[in-house]
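Re: Re: ligand-bound prediction request (bumping)

Still looking for help on this. To restate: I need the protein modeled with tryptophanyl-5'AMP bound, output as structure tokens. Inputs repeated here so nobody has to scroll up.
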Amino acid sequence: MREIVLSGIRSTGNLHLGNYLGAVQNFVKMQHDSNCFFFIADFHSLTTHPTPADLHKSVRQVLVEYLAAGLDPEVSTLYIQSDVPEIAELYLLLNMNAYLGELERTTSFKEKARKQPENVNAGLLTYPVLMAADIVVHHADKVPVGKDQEQNLEMARKFARRFNNMYSVDYFKEPVAYNFGKELIKIPGLDGTGKMGKSEGNGIFLADDEKTIRKKIMRAVTDSGPTEPNSQMSESVKNLFSILDIVSSKDTVEYFKEKYNSCEIRYGDLKKQLAEDVIKLIAPINKRIQEIDSNTDYISKVARMGAEKARASAVKTLQEVREIIGIRKFY
Ligand code: TYM
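Reply:
Sorry for the wait, this slipped through. Here it is.
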């Protein structure tokens, strides 16, 4: 049987380079060899209370950008989470075996609770349970994600295992976080700290044109330059090198590393090269975004097709789960 691959993205704004390199690019590489499910996590994005208009717009935008990045809806199952109500039902059922203590200890929950103390809602707390439902509803083996989702995947395995133990079945698989042939990655932001994020104002987006990408990269935070050979890199310079490492050729990376180690580096040159290599990656996607965005009929056809395929799989799982749990009809 073909391996099942699944991943998702929240509909909270445009896709950035981190989303693309950490997750989306991996799906694209895998879609012809595996049974792939890709979805837009619009339920998850409700934790931040978007307006109805913003929510709808973001879901459309993410769908367009997924397609532009190379996901083929004829080959894969590309759908919107809220089109599959069985996910919500499975989330409810899994919540019965998810415990307050373990949910409160999740790093992402603690971080969110710190960032938005005025809105620590139950959806945030049970976010990993909904994520587990997303994954196990299609019995996924591999989940291409960035490093930041590692703990959520660990929880998904735990909930799957717990369900199996509780009902003495070998029903759910234990999914693993995955990056095509490599370690999970974290793309840093351009501001010298943390990871690239949608809301951090430190990102390069697939929807950015060439001029914007150049401007953003040329403005990226660096330091005053190495003063001794082979000195330690500051966080901000290390960040630029880690993006270079992923988007540029080995020779380019070596060239700039040598320049750094011999104190001859000019950050302006490094940034120019980085900008060109990022543009090489993003420009073709950007062009397709414009084309697909104007084709509303195509977008609705893709969404309908994805919903039908995803539901067929999810309905079957929920019938089996209900039977296992003992939710049986009297009529
Ligand atoms: P989200 O929407 O924050 O991000 C989507 C994907 O992009 C990856 N990512 C990154 N990878 C590398 N470097 C970065 N700077 C970076 N920023 C984001 C994320 O790791 C993720 O793979 N909870 C998920 C959405 C989700 C999901 C799922 C994913 C819901 N259900 C089921 C997989 C399976 C999230 O918030 O991703």
